[in-house]
Design goal:
34% of the residues lie in helices and 21% in strands. It is built from 27 helices and 41 strands. The strands form seven sheets. Strands 1, 2, 3, 4, 5, 12, 13, 14, 15, 16 and 17 form an eleven-stranded mixed sheet that branches. It is globular, with a radius of gyration of 33 Å.
Length: 907
């Protein structure tokens, strides 16, 4: 046998999904006969639910060096990530001149091969008519715009017509190739009652599974009451409670053909003509099935328990690789678990080159946009346990993809390349090789997922390790007391000096809490803890700090303040599960190690509720600032820069601190409505904050005019006597009138603001929290060219957003709201339907429309159903009368049907 002379590439969206796995195995059967290497570049999941996931998964396609391959197979339709398939095909066209075959999809540039979905659907319909004598057949289609949907629907109609049956358009339902479409279809069928079909033909097994489950939940038996059949027989469909009658797409044969196409010189004359096969299951009503239930036997004597295999009861990989703060220790631990990758010839981990410096600079970020020029050959494990690697002292060029691919070998292998990432961080990529024609399994995919989480834990642990070194240095530094002398004080000052000593000795400090409110809706965002003394004689906080400094006891104030306030936070979780607490800190005051540990203990429990206020007057060194920030970040604590706008303020200082909040000093805000220079300066500060993801807090707002101006300038938060005075107790809300003023000012300021629109369809579950964190203002719902048209929009009971829901013209589908909160920024309704829409709005939990209602044109229809409640809050209570029905009609305009069991009310 000669040396390997050729290698082919396969680009695929989800290699171990049934169709793709069978295709790859068929392809390998042919190429292995010719001793040709194959490199498969694959994502882990066909569908992703976040932008980070989309970028991280599809990044693997940036690894391909087209010059290494003699032919490329592109399973275009398997890549459902928004925008990726077309861009990737164009990139291939611009960078590769060898033979390319596109599988299951249309191509502007290349020959395409598709399995015959028309024939596969038609034989199933023919079976129901000819063998079961059925005449009332329904069809659950996929996405209406998809070529596969059109082809399979045509086959359904043609079969009916050929058998002399009438096509009933009311029996044709749109879906999206996913399980949830079955739920929607079951609702439609249930409403038909006596006019129900005898059988439903589904365009794919996923929808058939969802339909079977939904029907049986409604007491409709399969197949006794309604038969369910399908196309594209999958393992899931064959192994359900009742095996689904379907047609098996010849994926393995198609893979074999694709390999033949690349091997032949006369390839353009080749055509794939293998037809799908009818697979008889139990769901059609047949007594004799061609699907045999698998007999569960192991292929070898060893068991998952005896081998300590992945996910067995004794497996500890998750625990073991998440506790390291040393790169070498981590790689050694991972290497020790590579034995769990059963059947693999070898496993390889390549990390981006910046990981070489990660132990010194763990804040280095590598985005999911390609890979570094040099890759660290971090792990190589061979099945014979020879020539292994676990370390960082070897590198190779990423253009080589993997040294083993280019190595001279006598026997061919298949290499699967998959991304290694976590959220926005690109760590590198992994490769697993096999010497037999097979695909990686689910164990490998889950194992790699654990590896990705382990690398993220390592990155965080490395950062914490460096932070701890800096914190140790901070704790051990001595603090120099203020250079003042007691004898130079007046009699009154000496009395105050002694009073402060008593206050500190007996911890006679207490606190009042002033609300900090959102500039969008006036709701309380946080409270600032303001120090007071419980002595009979009043003494101001500034005097307490002055005399404590003279006594060298600023650290006592620092300790008492944190302990006193954090104990209040600890005892009132009902307040601080929704709000934050701003605590003033004296950065130069060094508490003892024991005190430090006590503060840290309380902070760990409440970190996400704490904001520490630092002042520029402390004049900290850059290293100290960095250490403070990293330490607080570790505990989940945020930082506010206090008194910005005083004599110390400059952009240089702001750049040094880069806090989470900037508190704009009262001196800049007093009378700002009549001071254009102040307005210009404050606007610049706020713009800088927003450009750097910092919240701007207007401090000391005392009049309605100041309030209006700071909202107009874009402040995020407001604090001052006008919105709320300090109090010893926590208020739930500020005055309603002031809240309405804030909302009105904010809406007016938003009239010229830009929208940030989230276009739905990439996932069937839309998390409002994630969208709100990313500053989206609108969710745009469409059913054209999307993966999912039926969606769940999920919020949380306490989550409020500035998001508006809008439907494109012609949308038809079901939207489920789970504790959703929408508002009407820019004076729009909270929910707005376009022309010719047909929407089922299913309510779950408590859903709130804040400041507006629902509007739809005459051409559209909205049905509100479900067990949840809908609360509509108006901008002005004066619009509400005693007639609840009239109120609802005012806030919900258009052709709306209320079929829900929960309540709809207007506040």
């Amino acid at each position: 046998m000669g040396m390997i002379e050729k290698r082919f590439a396969i680009l695929v969206g989800h290699a171990n999904e049934t169709y793709q796995r069978q295709f790859i195995e068929g392809f390998l059967e042919r190429t292995f006969d010719e001793n040709i290497d194959v490199c498969v570049f694959s994502m882990y999941r066909k569908y992703q639910d976040t932008e980070e996931g989309e970028k991280g998964e599809s990044n693997i396609f940036r690894l391909i060096n087209y010059g290494l391959f003699s032919g490329i197979i592109y399973l275009k339709d398997s890549i459902q990530t928004t925008g990726v398939a077309e861009k990737l095909e164009k990139h291939i066209y611009e960078n590769y001149r060898g033979p390319v075959l596109v599988i299951e999809g249309k191509s502007e540039y290349y020959k395409t091969t598709n399995t015959d979905g028309y024939y596969g659907t038609k034989i199933v319909v023919d079976h129901m008519i000819e063998e079961h004598g059925m005449s009332k057949l329904a069809f659950l289609n996929g996405k209406r715009w998809h070529p596969h949907s059109k082809m399979r629907l045509k086959a359904f109609k043609d079969s009916l017509i050929e058998h002399g049956l009438t096509v009933n358009e009311d029996f044709i339902f749109d879906g999206d190739f996913w399980y949830t479409s079955g739920e929607t279809c079951a609702d439609d069928i249930e409403e038909l009652k006596d006019e129900r079909p005898e059988a439903v033909v589904c365009a794919c097994d996923q929808m058939a599974i969802g339909l079977c489950e939904a029907l049986e939940k409604r007491g409709i038996r399969v197949p006794e009451d309604i038969a369910v059949v399908s196309y594209d027989s999958t393992e899931e469909g064959r192994t359900g409670p009742k095996s689904i009658t379907s047609s098996l797409a010849p994926a393995r044969e198609c893979g074999f053909f694709a390999a033949e196409y690349l091997l032949r010189e006369d390839r353009e004359s080749l055509d794939f003509d293998v037809k799908p096969k009818l697979i008889i299951g139990e769901s059609c009503g047949c007594k004799i099935c061609s699907i045999q239930r698998p007999v569960l036997k192991r292929a070898e004597w060893a068991t998952p328990i005896s081998e300590k295999a992945y996910n067995s009861i004794n497996d500890t990989i998750k625990e073991s690789i998440n506790n390291y703060s040393d790169m070498q220790d981590f790689l050694d631990a991972v290497y020790s678990f590579t034995y769990q990758l059963k059947g693999a010839k070898s496993f390889h981990l390549a990390l981006n080159e910046p990981w070489l410096k990660m132990e010194e600079k763990p804040d280095i970020e590598v985005a999911n946009f390609g890979y570094s020029h040099k890759m660290i050959y971090a792990i190589r494990h061979n099945s014979d346990n020879k020539d292994g690697i676990a370390g960082t002292n070897r590198t190779f060029n990423s253009s080589d993809i993997l040294p083993l691919v280019l190595k001279k070998r006598e026997k061919c292998q298949v290499f699967f390349f998959t991304p290694v990432f976590f959220n926005k961080y690109c760590f590198g990529y992994a490769a697993v090789a096999y010497s037999e024609p097979r695909c990686y399994d689910e164990t490998y995919r889950l194992w790699i997922s654990d590896l990705c989480v382990g690398l993220e834990s390592l990155r965080v642990n490395l950062a914490n390790k460096i932070l701890q070194k800096k914190l140790d240095a901070i704790i051990n530094n001595k603090f120099s007391a203020i250079d003042s002398r007691f004898e130079f004080l007046s009699r009154e000052e000496k009395d105050e000096y002694e009073l402060v000593e008593k206050i500190l000795n007996e911890n006679l400090l207490t606190y009042q809490f002033q609300p900090i409110v959102n500039a969008t809706d006036g709701e309380i965002f946080a409270f600032e803890a303001l120090m007071r003394a419980t002595t009979d004689k009043m003494i101001s906080p500034l005097r307490i700090i002055k005399f404590a400094g003279m006594q060298g006891r600023l650290s006592d104030i620092e300790f008492d303040t944190f302990m006193n306030v954090l104990e209040v936070v600890d005892k009132t979780p009902e307040v601080f599960c929704k709000t934050k607490i701003f605590i003033n800190s004296i950065p130069g005051a060094r508490v003892s190690e024991k005190q430090f540990q006590m503060i840290e203990s309380l902070s760990k429990r409440n970190g996400k509720s704490i904001v520490v206020e630092l002042t520029e007057e402390a004049e900290l060194e850059d290293e100290d600032i960095g250490a403070y920030k990293e330490y607080f970040k570790k505990l989940g604590i945020e930082i506010a820069l206090d008194d910005y706008g005083t004599g110390y303020s400059n952009i240089g200082n702001l750049l040094r601190y880069m806090p989470d909040y900037v508190k704009i000093d009262r001196s800049l805000l007093s009378g700002i409505q009549n001071a254009p220079q102040k307005q210009h300066f404050v606007k610049d500060i706020i713009t800088f904050c927003h450009d750097n993801n910092i919240k701007a807090l207007a401090e000391g707002v005392e009049t309605i005019e100041e309030l209006r101006m700071v909202i107009q300038l874009g402040a995020d938060l407001i604090q001052g006597y006008y919105t709320g005075k300090p109090s010893s107790s926590f208020i739930k809300r500020i005055d309603r009138k002031i809240r309405n003023e804030i909302r009105a000012c904010y809406r007016k300021s938003m009239n010229g603001a830009l929208l940030k629109i989230y276009e739905s369809g990439r996932t069937n579950r839309v998390p409002l929290k994630s969208l709100s964190n990313s500053n989206y203002t609108e969710i745009l719902i469409s059913d054209e060219n999307v993966v999912y048209k039926d969606l769940v929009i999920a919020g949380a009971p306490a989550l409020e957003t500035d998001i508006h829901l809008k439907f494109k013209n012609g949308y038809s589908g079901m939207i489920t709201l789970e504790n959703a909160f929408f508002s009407n920024i820019k004076n729009r309704p909270c929910i707005e339907l376009g022309e010719n829409c047909n929407v089922n709005l299913v309510l779950q939990g408590i859903n709130i429309l804040d400041g507006g209602g629902i509007i739809l044109p005459k051409s559209s229809k909205l049905i509100i159903e479900g067990e949840g409640d809908l609360i509509i809050r108006t901008q002005n209570n004066e619009n509400i009368g005693d007639d609840e029905e009239k109120n609802i009609k005012e806030m919900v305009r258009g052709d709306v049907s209320f079929n829900q069991t929960g309540s709809v009310s207007v506040e």
